[in-house]
Amino acid sequence: MTSPVRVLITGAGSGLGRAMAMAWARRGAQIIVADIARERAEESVALCKTSGAADAVFLALDVTSEPDFVAALEWVTAHWGGLDIVVNNAGVAGGGSFEGISEADWSWMLNINLLGVVRGCRVFTSLFKQQQQGQFVNIASMAGLLNPPAMANYNVAKAGVIALSETLAAELSPWNIRTLAVCPSYFQTNLNESLRTHDPLTKAALNKLLASSDITADDIAEGIVAAVGAGDNLYLPHEQAQQAWDRKRQNPGVIPEDMLVYARKLAAAQGKN
Fold it and tell me: Are 148 and 259 in contact (CB under 8 A)?
């Protein structure tokens, strides 16, 4: 009998994290819902159990804390004898005009969205090497590939996640450790709850884009599970974003026209003639 897949997901108390937890739960996996929000996380645990998970537990985990990741490593080693998949999903939103993003905002964004992923990968790499197998799933963003205006700190953080993922996909492959970078565009989630910006235009634009998406967190979660099964290194859930990325790859030295149009609209809204 095949043993259940053992999965740890950060930020699994809501949004895409919860959707991924439930997607693996439906396949009979053992799930660790790792989050800083206990109440939401406990809801995810209950949903995973009713969805068919072999086991589902909550672990308090702040991605800015390496000791929290180490504690999770010690837990899975003691209770499950190892782990198969680490999903570095927890993240926050931010943006605004470049000159208005403070150094504190840069530090906040990079510490969570980039270094949070670095910590998750670094702490569990030793275990995966001992096991001679493992899978990292790092949630990046199309913003890290297309770099839209008024999102400098978010773009840089997510581009760093993509670069890290590509590096590890090669470096860790001799130990049968795979790395998948996931680059969704906008979809309906609670990402706007974490938004930090000085610019009301950025907030309004994010809310509009999240509400207008025709793809759900559940859709993306199912795609991620399929991409892991296929051994992919990059997954782009949105077809329109995939097309934009294809155009940029064909002309890497050219700023996409839609980004220039968006930049001009922002400048006009900010009163620049």
Answer: yes
Q: Per the residue annotation, which of 154, 186, 235, 262 is the catalytic one?
A: 154
- Domain range for 29 is 6-269
Burial of 1 (0-12, 13-18, 19+ CB in 10 A): exposed
Please give the DSSP secondary-structure letter assigned to residue 59.
E
> Vertex 73, ends 69 and 75: CA angle to 5°?
115
pLDDT tens for each residue of 130-146:
999 999 999 999 999 99
So what's the pLDDT on residue 257? 81
Which CATH number do you get for residue 116?
3.40.50.720
The CA distance from 142 to 249, in Å, is 13
| pLDDT, position 269 | 78
Helix (H) or strand (E) holding 6: strand 6-10
Q: pTM (2 decimals)?
A: 0.91
Question: Does the annotation mark 154 as catalytic?
Answer: yes
